[in-house]
Amino acid sequence: MKDILSAVEQRLDDQSARGLATAVSRAVRDGAVPDGAALPPIRTVAHELALSPTTVSSAWRILQRAGVIRTDGRRGSRIATPGQPHQDRYARVVEEQSGLPVDLSTGVPDPRLLPSLTASLDQLTTARVPRSYLDDPVLPGLREAVLADWPYAAQRLSVTDGALDALELVGRTALRYGDRVVVEDPCFPPLVDLLGSLGAEVVGVPMDDEGMLLTALERRLDDGARAVVHQPRAQNPTGICLSRKRARAMARLLEGRDVLVIEDDSMGAISSAPALSLGEWLPEQTVHIRSFAKSHGPDLRIAAMTGPAELMGECAARRQLAQGWTSRLLQRVLLDLLTRPEARASVAQAREVYALRRAALVDALAARGIPVPGTDGLNIWVEVADEAAALVRLAGQGVAAAPGSPFAVDAGAPPHIRVTAGRADGDTAALADQLAQAARARSRTARHR
Ligand SMILES: Cc1ncc(COP(=O)(O)O)c(C=O)c1O
Q1: Which among 22, 116, 99, 91 has a CA at the least distance from the CA of 62?
Q2: Distance 266 CA to ligand 1 centre (A)
Q3: Residue of 164, 187, 233 with the most ligand 1 atoms within 8 Å of its CB, for mutation
Q4: Over the stretch 96-113, which tens digit does the pLDDT of each residue have?
Q5: Domains by residue range for the chain, with CATH
Q6: Pocket probe mutation, ligand 1, options 106, 184, 188, max atoms within 8 Å of Cβ
Q7: pTM (global) more than 0.85
Q8: Percent of the chain clearing pLDDT 90 (strictly above)
C-alpha cells in the first residue's frame, strides 16, 4: 500500500481529481504500480495524500471510466489487468469449421437467399445522401421504415454497424465492471465473450419452449442482476421464440427493478414469428436491437436499436467520439431494400425457405426419435450422447456442425451440437439419418467406461 501511495505521490503535480487520476495512470504506465494491484481505501488515500475523499472518489471514477482501475463494490478497487480480448467461446465455434462439403456449422444465412443488391446500388447517388458530419446520423426515411415494423412504440432509434456493435455500445455505456448479467442458457457465444470483456459476470437462465424459465430468472434477479440479455425470437442456437404470455410475465418480474433488458433480434425479417419486445410493457427499461445482417446481407453491417431516451443519448455521445455514425450510403441501400417490392418479396421468400428447411429437418429427426426444441430461425439444437464423437462422426460423412459447449453458460447441461438447418438444402432424410447416428455416437473411451 505504502509503495503504491508513494509512487502516486511522486507523480502528483496537481491536487485535483484529474491530477490524481493522471498520477495513478502514470504510475501504472511506468511500471511502479503492477497490474492487478489493490488500491488502498479512499479514506486512506485521501489522508495520506492530503486530499478530500470526494476528490479521490472522483479520480477513481475517471480511472474506472478509462479502464485503468476496476471497482468491485465492497471489495474495493484494483488496477485493471489488460486481459486478452475475450474470444474463447467464439474461437471454439469457428475453429471447427473445416471446409467439409456440407457446412452446417456457421449459423450464417444462405447467400443465395439474400436479396440482390444490384438495383439498390444502381439507385445510389451520393447527391441524395447527406454529406456532412453534422447531418442526422439516421437517414429519416430509414427511421420511418424501420419503426413502421417495430414491436413497440419506441422513443428513439439509432442505427449501428450490426447487432454486436449495438450490444457492445449499450454494454459499455450501461454496465460497470462486476455487474451481473443474465443471459439465456444456451447463449450466442460472442455475446458471452463480449460481456466478459466488459467485466460483467455472466449467469445463465435455462429455457423451455416459451423462453426463459421464470423461477430461475427470478432467482437471478433477486441475486442482484443489473441486466438481462435475451433473444425474443428464433433464439440462436435453439430456435426458441419467447411466447407473449412469458414475455408479459417477464415484464411483471422486471418491473420496478433497476435492471436493463437488452433484446437481440438477430434473425429479424427472416424469422417467421412476429417481432416481440418487453418494451411493450417496460419501454423505460428496454433496449431492442434488430439486425439486418441475416435478412438483407451480413456485409451491410446494419442494425437498428431503440431504447430509453437518456441511455440512447449517452450511447450516441459515446459513438460520436469514435465512428460517429453508420454510413448513410449503406443506410440508403438498406432503405431501398426495405421498400423495393422485389427485395421485399425476396426476403419473404427466404423466410419461407428457411422455415421449410428447418421444419423438414426437425420432422425427420423427430421421426428418428430425436426431438429438438424451438420453431424458428436458422439453427437447431440437437442433444447428443457425446459432443466430440458426434462431430467426428458427422465430419467422417462430410458434414460440419458446431460444438454445443461454447454455447453452454452454466456447466451440467447435456451435450449438444448446433446445426444450421437453414443451410440444409440437400437430401433431408439422409441428413437426418446422419444426425441421428451422430446423436447416438459415443467415443471409445466413453463406451468402455
Ligand atoms: C444471436 C446473435 N446476435 C448477434 C449476431 C450478430 O449480428 P450482426 O451481424 O448484426 O452483428 C448474431 C449473428 O450470428 C447472432 O446470432
Answers
A1: 22
A2: 5
A3: 164
A4: 556 899 999 999 999 999
A5: 2-79 (1.10.10.10), 88-110+343-448 (3.90.1150.10), 117-340 (3.40.640.10)
A6: 188
A7: yes
A8: 79
